[in-house]
Amino acid sequence: MSRLIINKIILILSTIAALIGITFLLWILATLTIKGYYSINWHIFTADLVNNGLRNVIIGQFILAGMATAIGVPLGMLAGIYLREYGANSKFAMIIRNFSDVMMSAPSIVIGIFVYGIFVVPFGGFNGWAGSIALSIMMIPIVVSTTDSMLSLVPQELREAGIALGASKAQVILSIVLSAAKIGLITGGLLAFARVIGETAPLLFTSANNNFLSLSLNGQYPSLTVSIYQLATFPSQTSQNLAWAGSVILTLLVLFINLTTRFIFKPRKQ
Amino acid sequence: MKLAIDTKKFSFTYPKNSSPTLKNINMPVYANQVTALIGPSGCGKSTLLRSYNRIHDVYPGNQYDGKILLYNNKGEKPENIFDYKKENELIKLRQRVGMIFQKPTPFPMSIKDNITYGLRLLGIKNKTELLDRAEIALKGSALWEEVKDRLNSSATGLSGGQQQRLCIARAVALKPEVLLFDEPTSALDPISTASIEELIIELKREITILIVTHNMQQASRISDMTGFMYLGDLVEFDKTETIFLNPKEKQTEDYITGRFG
Amino acid sequence: MLFNRFFKSLSYTSAWLVLGILVAIFIVLYHYSAGAIRHFGFFHFITNQKWIVGEDGDGGNFGGLIPILGTIYSTLIAMFFAVPIAMGIAIFLTEIAPEFLKKPVGMAIELLAAIPSIIYGMWGLFYFGPLLQSWFGGQSNSLLTAGIVLGIMVIPFMAALSRDAMKTTPSVLTESAYSMGATRFEVIKDVIFPYAKRGIIGSIILSLGRALGETMAVAFLIGGVFRFPDSLTSATISIPVLIANNFGEAGNLQLSSMFYMALILFIISFFTITLAKFYFLRRD
Questions:
Q1: Most exposed among A14, A165, A249, C107, judged by the fewest C-beta atoms under 10 Å?
Q2: pLDDT single digits (tens) C133-181
Q3: pLDDT exceeds 50 at position A36
């Protein structure tokens, strides 16, 4: 009898746990919705930070994340290709895979000041390149891992069929395997992009922030996340409203990209 | 009967295996004939087939012994395919000896790009030439009529039987001397199976065919010569009628009559 | 054929890059902390409670004890809070939820994971912190607030990894237990958890490693005050917050000290994560 009671208790507790999780999610989303309603208006999107708008920092965040993607995705994909297509289950490949996963959980502020040490100090000041590089370092392990997984889903016969026609290994990888894994690879890239576009710590001491719209990565670069941090801690109603507006926009962006990837990548049943 | 390939004392051991999967195989493959390899699961027939285009080389660590001699149709001295060490020699081998797999393997590209894949690897860039050769290959695989209006659509949209004929057309476009078929119809329905068997009988007029099959009826239907393998040995190799109606070895007879396998 | 070899070398080099970045981080951090290490001594720095900037802005007396403890305490609070809830969610998703609920609830948890940490900071600062203050007194930006919000942040990660570990239990095992009349709790306790033990412990340790390095939410919520916390509800500081708040205007010795702090943080989290990865969550 008591077995059933204990069972019921555990079931209820677990359901409560799930409800707690969902409650927090809904609470946060509700907060953002309310704050967004009151703080978002056209001015935000047309004025720059210097004029209490967010236009330049939104664009800036995209550019930083975009540059990071341009650096991080090719490097990560090449490493992932090596792991799956050349290294397979060799000792070296397993070590790289595991250390890449370790890097995925590394503290982002450490990566930020690491890049400060090599790309800000020697260059004399905060700059957008350093910010992009810091973000790309965070992207690389994610891209390595998703590339590795997605390529492992490509059936081996496809590779053999290419070899059987006289293709070299590199040709098989580039013209057949990557094509076959195309959707999964794009999803991985999008997820990595979504992850870094919401990061703040790596940018604090690399690209910092900029009140103006800037197209040159050579100096301090505008960032939405860093702006939110600076605005929220500034004791004025305008700043804090702006911080909320930024928060809502950032969250919508990140959730949108995440939801999109769920709908692009549907593992096909064959 | 002219020789296309001669297998001489060929043994093969997979990496990390203690004993060989193929033991001292001696087997001729005659030009413009269909040679079938039959035998129970694990007898080594696929391993032997895959040795002829050296696709085992994709997985390092194999050990082998003996020779596989490839003849050309100009009557010159044959070459031992295991003498090929450089990558471009292996590539040339695979253009002469093509392979069709058990599961149809259409590449994720258009039908046209699939067929011309091997040709483009050869460096042929001329669009008209590519299209012409694709048409010939597709006609030769009885697929032209079905796809001629949608050459630019994706190959993965074709049915299983069509996909397999696509793979055959793709291989045939390179004008190979030998085609290796690894259980090509085991994943297909009976109608597609029949059309591919018809195709193979057509193809042998120009190409030497070597086919592995676990379907004895198929072997008896389409092959001229048959080899029965068991546990890595080539137990008996003879004309197909002989193997099926009058086998010389008891093991062969037991397999044919269904006593095991 | 040249291209073939070139491509292989290119991808091989990229694979090494991952390892290279890791090593480079250690080297660069050490390089910049050398000054502080020489000045204060390796161990003395760790046990020193002070953080005073020198009058000239360049020197000073810096020690890492308080931020190190702040990092550890906030992470422990986060774990206390997160582990039971994450386990509960994992159990719910694998054994309790009816089919039609599995996907939406799973998705909700994943969305929770996708929310950027700065958003957690905003929410905690303006809503959750004051709520905790009304319940427990003390400061609204405190060790407790930071710890709990940190916990909320790692819940999805831990739940997802634990769920994956639990899902690897072969259904033949669970089915045979059920067919013997075991209740769901007993199947979880006696079959699934023992089987998935490694993965679950690994997920906990890995989440701990991640929580150690979290910056933005904690920066908003822990108070940023360089003092030992008198109680759970008083403000203190953690390593990432120290760095985030002071890095900008630091003089040489202070900068070096912060690099040293970062090095300590990196070493602690690196070892924690590596332990989780290589011992519990090895990919083979």
A1: C107
A2: 999 888 889 999 999 999 999 999 999 999 999 999 998 998 999 999 8
A3: yes
Classified as helix, coil or strand, B151 is coil
Is residue C167 in a domain? yes
Would you say C115 and A44 are in contact if contact means Cβ atoms under 8 Å apart?
A: no
Q: What percent of chain C has pLDDT over 70?
A: 98
Q: How many of the other CB atoms lie within 10 Å of CB of A235?
A: 6
- Domain residue limits, chain B: 3-256
Spell out the alpha helix ranges (H) of chain C: 2-40, 42-47, 65-91, 99-114, 117-123, 129-136, 143-167, 171-179, 184-187, 193-212, 216-221, 239-246, 252-275
Confidence of residue C58 (pLDDT cuts 50, 70, 90): low
| pLDDT for C56 | 66
User: What is the residue-averaged pLDDT of chain C?
Assistant: 90
Q: Give a yes or no: residue C175 inside a domain.
A: yes
Looking at the domain assignment, is residue C134 inside a domain? yes
Residues of C in contact with B123 (CB under 8 A): none
Spatial distance between the Cα atoms of C16 and C5, rounded to a whole number of angstroms: 17
Name the residue of chain C whose CA is nearest to B90's CA. C1
Nearest to A182 by CA among A151, A157, A161, A156: A151
Give the DSSP H/E element, type plus range, for residue B172. Answer: helix B160-172
- pLDDT tens digits, one per residue of C238-271: 999 999 988 877 778 888 989 999 999 999 999 9
Q: What kind and span of H or E run contains B179?
A: strand B178-182
DSSP state of B83: G
Min distance B252 CA to chain A CA atoms (Å): 31
Q: Which two tokens stand for residue B51?
A: 């040795």
pTM over 0.80, yes/no: yes
A158 and B107: CB-CB below 8 Å? Answer: yes
CA separation for the pair C28, C39 (Å, rounded):
18
* B116 contacts: CB under 8 Å, gap ≥ 6: B124, B130, B131, B133, B134, B173
Q: How far off is chain C from B58, nearest CA to CA, in Å?
A: 14
Among residues A109, A148, A79, A89, which one has the least CA distance to residue C18?
A: A79
Distance CA C189, CA C54 (A): 58
In tens, the pLDDT along B191-205 reads 999 999 999 999 999
Asked if A166 and B102 come within 8 Å (Cβ–Cβ), the reply is no
Q: What is the CATH number of the domain that holds C95?
A: 1.10.3720.10
- Whether residue B88 and residue C1 make contact (CB cut-off 8 A), yes or no, is yes
What is the predicted ipTM? 0.91
| Distances, alpha carbon C105 to alpha carbons A260, A264, C98, C99, in Å | 17, 20, 11, 10
- Domain extent at residue C104: 75-241+272-280
Could you tell me if C4 lies within 8 Å of chain B, comparing CB atoms?
Answer: yes
Nearest to A201 among C16, C119, C215 (CB): C215
Q: Does B123 touch chain C (CB under 8 A)?
A: no
Architecture, CATH, for domain B3-256: 3-Layer(aba) Sandwich (3.40)
Q: What is the number of domains present in chain C? A: 1
C-alpha–C-alpha distance, residues C161 and A163, integer Å: 38
- Of the residues A89, A150, A159, A165, the best mutation for testing chain B's interface (the one with the most B CB atoms within 10 Å of its CB) is A165
Question: Could you read off the pLDDT of A168-214 as tens digits, one per residue?
Answer: 999 999 999 999 999 999 999 999 999 999 999 999 999 989 989 88
The pair of three-digit structure tokens given for residue C10, joined into one six-digit string: 């290119």
Q: What is the mean pLDDT of residues B126-139?
A: 92
pLDDT at B37: 96
Mean pLDDT for all residues in chain B:
92
> What are the backbone angles phi and psi of residue C235, rounded to the nearest 5°?
-80, 150
Chain C: give the shortest CA distance to residue A51, in Å.
22
Would you call A22 and C108 a contact, using CB atoms and an 8 Å cutoff? Answer: yes
The partner residues of C4 in beta bridges, in order of sequence, read none
Interface touch C92/A15, C-beta < 8 Å: yes
